[in-house]
């Protein structure tokens, strides 16, 4: 056999072996592409239902198929929401189980079974308007079994209200008046303002108000009171200085009334110019002046002399009887 004849079989065998390798590589490449395409076609989806989160990879293109793959099935009124515009890789599907809720609106009470994810969507599905209503609980709250949703119709009304403005009280010192005395020299007069008020009603019941504007139509006039500052009193014995003045209920008694031998609680003999007091009001030993009675010393007490009362010792029974019971002005002297 010539050299040329021996070379051709070897070349043919090499050529066939190369073609087999190429075919094998092509087949492996096709399988790899097929597997890669399968993996890329899968979507990773999370399903949230019944308190669980289920992660799956799926080739399905419908929500029902994906839920079935996750072992989740919808009831007649159950609903779901997607986290993305459509089913895609990374989508979260949240399932909302239908629950019974009570809806109170315009005096009617209805029980509905709903799978809506929010109170607002429940009301939208029932055709209840969003405007001019107050909803409790809030619209973004998730419905729960047994929940009561109250929808109040809100109305508003503008009214004009007249409001009195209290007058101020002005106190002015007056040296002509004794300390403790007061004199009203000008009566106060209330003012008036008109307010525009927006009233808010819920189901016909007043629920709130808002003042929009106010206008004063009459200014108040102050009450003016003169307050005495003079701390002296003119008497038959001259000018006396006092610390304070108070009106007291006065009675009269004889020197021998009560204690034997005409002695007072302080041991001083009872006589004109001795008065019985409540020591918590006027301390014993205090000098006082009483118009139409004169100077006196608080030196006695009495069982009935309690609080703002004073008992004046007279010279005799008839004088005490004639005095009776009256209100007197008592000057507490320095």
Give an overview in words.
A hairpin with a 2-residue loop joins strand 11 and strand 12. The strands form 4 sheets. Strands 5, 6, 7, 8, 11 and 12 form a 6-stranded mixed β-sheet that branches. This protein has a 6-stranded mixed beta barrel with strand order 15-19-16-18-17-20. The longest helix has 39 residues. By secondary structure, the chain is of the alpha+beta class. Among the domains are: 53 residues; 71 residues, Resuscitation-promoting factor rpfb fold (Single Sheet); 103 residues, Beta Barrel (Barwin-like endoglucanases), CATH 2.40.40.10. It is built from 4 helices and 20 strands. About 3% of the residues have low confidence.
Overall spatial form: rod-shaped
Kindly report the name of the CATH homologous superfamily of the domain at 231-333. RlpA-like domain
How would you state the average pLDDT, rounded?
A: 89
Low-confidence segments, given as residue ranges, are: 30-40
Specify the helix fraction band: 10-25%
Count the beta strands.
Answer: 20
Radius of gyration: 52 Å
List the helices and strands and how they pair.
Layout: H1 3-41, E1 43-49, E2 52-58, H2 63-69, E3 79-82, E4 92-96, E5 99-105, E6 108-114, H3 119-125, E7 133-136, E8 148-165, E9 169-178, E10 182-186, E11 191-202, E12 205-218, E13 223-230, E14 232-235, E15 238-253, E16 274-277, E17 287-290, E18 294-300, E19 309-313, H4 317-323, E20 326-333
Parallel strand pairs: 1-4, 5-8, 9-13, 15-19, 16-18
Antiparallel strand pairs: 1-2, 3-4, 5-6, 7-8, 8-11, 10-13, 11-12, 14-15, 15-20, 16-19, 17-18, 17-20
């Amino acid at each position: 056999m010539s050299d040329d004849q021996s070379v051709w079989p070897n070349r043919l065998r090499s050529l066939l072996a190369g073609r087999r390798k190429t075919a094998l590589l092509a087949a492996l490449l096709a399988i790899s592409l097929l597997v890669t395409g399968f993996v890329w076609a899968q979507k990773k989806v999370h399903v949230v239902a019944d308190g669980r989160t289920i992660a799956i990879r799926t080739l399905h293109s419908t929500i029902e198929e994906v839920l079935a793959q996750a072992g989740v099935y919808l009831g007649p009124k159950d609903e779901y929401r997607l986290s993305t515009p459509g089913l895609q890789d990374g989508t979260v599907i949240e399932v909302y189980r239908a629950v019974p809720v009570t809806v109170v609106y315009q005096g009617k009470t209805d029980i509905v079974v709903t799978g809506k994810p929010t109170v607002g969507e429940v009301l939208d599905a029932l055709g209840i308007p969003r405007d001019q209503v107050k909803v409790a609980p809030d619209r973004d709250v998730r419905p729960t079994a047994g929940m009561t949703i109250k929808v109040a119709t809100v109305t508003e009304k503008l009214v004009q209200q007249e409001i009195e403005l209290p007058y101020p009280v002005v106190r002015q010192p007056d040296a002509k008046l004794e300390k403790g005395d007061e004199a009203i020299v000008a009566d106060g007069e209330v003012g008036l303002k008109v307010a525009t008020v927006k009233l808010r009603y819920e189901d016909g019941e007043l629920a709130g108000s808002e003042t929009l504007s106010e206008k004063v139509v009459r200014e108040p006039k102050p009450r003016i009171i003169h307050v005495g500052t003079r701390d002296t009193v003119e008497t038959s014995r001259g000018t006396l200085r006092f610390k304070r003045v108070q009106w007291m209920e006065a009675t009269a008694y004889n020197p021998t009334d009560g204690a034997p031998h005409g002695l007072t609680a302080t041991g001083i003999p009872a006589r004109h110019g001795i008065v019985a007091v409540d020591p918590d009001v006027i301390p014993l030993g205090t000098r006082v002046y009483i118009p139409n009675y004169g100077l006196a010393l608080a030196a006695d007490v009495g069982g009935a002399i309690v609080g703002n009362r004073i008992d004046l010792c007279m010279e005799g029974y008839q004088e005490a009887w004639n005095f009776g019971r009256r209100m007197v002005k008592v000057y507490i002297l320095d």
